[in-house]
Amino acid sequence: xxxxxxxxxxxxxxxxxxxxxxxxxxxxxxxxxxxxxxxxxxxxxxxxxxxxxxxxxxxxxxxxxxxxxxxxxxxxxxxxxxxxxxxxxxxxxxxxxxxxxxxxxxxxxxxxxxxxxxxxxxxxxxxxxxxxxxxxxxxxxxxxxxxxxxxxxxxxxxxxxxxxxxxxxxxxxxxxxxxxxxxxxxxxxxxxxxxxxxxxxxxxxxxxxxxxxxxxxxxxxxxxxxxxxxxxxxxxxxxxxxxxxxxxxxxxxxxxxxxxxxxxxxxxxxxxxxxxxxxxxxxxxxxxxxxxxxxxxxxxxxxxxxxxxxxxxxxxxxxxxxxxxxxxxxxxxxxxxxxxx
Amino acid sequence: xxxxxxxxxxxxxxxxxxxxxxxxxxxxxxxxxxxxxxxxxxxxxxxxxxxxxxxxxxxxxxxxxxxxxxxxxxxxxxxxxxxxxxxxxxxxxxxxxxxxxxxxxxxxxxxxxxxxxxxxxxxxxxxxxxxxxxxxxxxxxxxxxxxxxxxxxxxxxxxxxxxxxxxxxxxxxxxxxxxxxxxxxxxxxxxxxxxxxxxxxxxxxxxxxxxxxxxxxxxxxxxxxxxxxxxxxxxxxxxxxxxxxxxxxxxxxxxxxxxxxxxxxxxxxxxxxxxxxxxxxxxxxxxxxxxxxxxxxxxxxxxxxxxxxxxxxxxxxxxxxxxxxxxxxxxxxxxxxxxxxxxxxxxxxxxxxxxxxxxxxxxxxxxxxxxxxxxxxxxxxxxxxxxxxxxxxxxxxxxxxxxxxxxxxxxxxxxxxxxxxxxxxxxxxxxxxxxxxxxxxxxxxxxxxxxxxxxxxxxxxxxxxxxxxxxxxxxxxxxxxxxxxxxxxxxxx
Lengths: 341, 493
Description:
heterodimer; A: mainly alpha; ABC transporter involved in vitamin B12 uptake, BtuC; two-stranded antiparallel ribbon; 14 helices; 75% helix; disordered N terminus; B: alpha/beta; Rossmann fold; 2 domains; 6-stranded mixed sheet
């Protein structure tokens, strides 16, 4: 009991998520023969490496009471544009290439942010529109051609699968390690930097933020720009991992990133949540997706439904929890008032 | 001594209405300066000018004797001017420390340093509070302490407290007054706005009365008394637009309320309402009059008392049941609860009574339009036609549409909450005439109003409430503004 009191609610959330992850692993291990092996870890870690970046950006946006539905298209565009740049100039320095992806993503993010913060159009509308616009831009840009891995330099294709270190059969590959580094870095920034605290403030109580002299517009713009940056970097990872890029690259990533964030305990109404949670959410979503494919009991058609049910459950828990907190607060206030009277 | 902040002939108008006229006020370091005035006297506008949210139309602000322009709340904060409100502005998801230092400068946060500073500030405020707790779990008083600590962290010189004790318990309010005194003793200039006159005399050094956007007087509290202050607050000549019409009350009691109460909100409300009568509920904001109306309308569950309506016990638990029983409730908040602004006038008017215009399950648009046209003429609603969105009308005409919406159901009991808030004098007179015609035709009205001339013009009898309690029910013949104000502020003998 005392231990439960000492850990912050945020920490409890993460612990609960870890417990759910463990339960899922144990459950599928009992169902699927030869489930627990290094390949499972490698497969999930490779795909989480990409989603973790997107979900991190999405979390920043959701914290400000907004949503970014354009990330999937940004990933696709960034992957394709980066791919065509390196195909044309194979000798380009890796960092220049990475910077190019980041720049593309940030540019798209800034456009979203300007429309949301300064033109005051609801983010769901802006990003629904830019999701389609960016995708069409990609189709136009690509001229209906695809990028193939043959056209890419060897270092790029090899980079995500390069093992940084191994724990037994578990390989920690460069892509995954880079993603974890980014998540930790963003987490540290969120908890230690003052401008980051304004992100929470704006999402928590916009009116009060205004009264406290916080420039909410700039904060929202920054959140979208960062979300774009993360999507741009994810595009780079996507290119490196798959090599073959078509115009449908990154399709559906926007919803998966939102799912990862809310499953990870980020409040969809803004103000609270952590990128570590979003990361664990991404792992859980991917773990379920991968495992359901191998679980013969659930047919292909039910897979999406199970995934959907999980997301609903996560959001419902969130809502109930916040309601309880509010109720407890009112009760405590009333009690204090009675005692005083 | 030089005033730390001064308003010099400050005027502010919104469109045609003047909210402040030639307001002059000087605030000195180390004093608690109370400001009192009726609802709508211009107190909020004054605060907004002092905190940089509004810019004066004319006149100037001086800080330390030098004229300044406060462009935005941040500029005001940089000059050491901060305000806290009845509803604290905290961030529910952040903890106490983070809340205090939310507008601090610098990029890197050193948690340990911030925490120590937060502890010191909270101690200076005179509260014991866990600085690691998340703000959503704090009581209102604690949240206000956090806000004060935030202001102190920015070297506040003028702290404006806008009705800080209005939603606090007696104990918490006393604590907050101590904090205000302590701040003044440490050299801060505290502006204390309150409706509770006894509180003003307890906490303030000087008190300024404002009325109709004008400065009436500034005195040391020792040189004035509650009766003088009330006289100054209501002192204007009552406009002669509002002459009281003779009562049309009949002997039959339509509604009898005995000891009505809702736990923790109001209690002990008792009155009889006769058919054809207008009963006005007077009081200040926060007197819980609206909640009484909501309880009668079934929107709030009563926990004590009995209500007899048309000779039988009234038992309504939803607005639908109340409407079925012939009770209508016209909300004080046109925007939030009253009208669907984007929808046509006709749709708004038939919203509560759409069932009447059904023909084989379909809306009979012809009958609906005829009704809307009828009410447009009867209530003199100035609009080219009834198909345009109600949001395009002026406030007074919107109010008439809202009344029409409820009058179409031909209620026996009409509860009207602040029927003329924010509308001009001409429209006010028309709304009054409308309510009078309604009762003359056999209806009964319960009018909740903070506007004293209106209460006196409409009410056959006047029920005065204060902080959830019924202070008195007075006949119109015995009522005057001073007496009502004295009851509403708790200063009656």
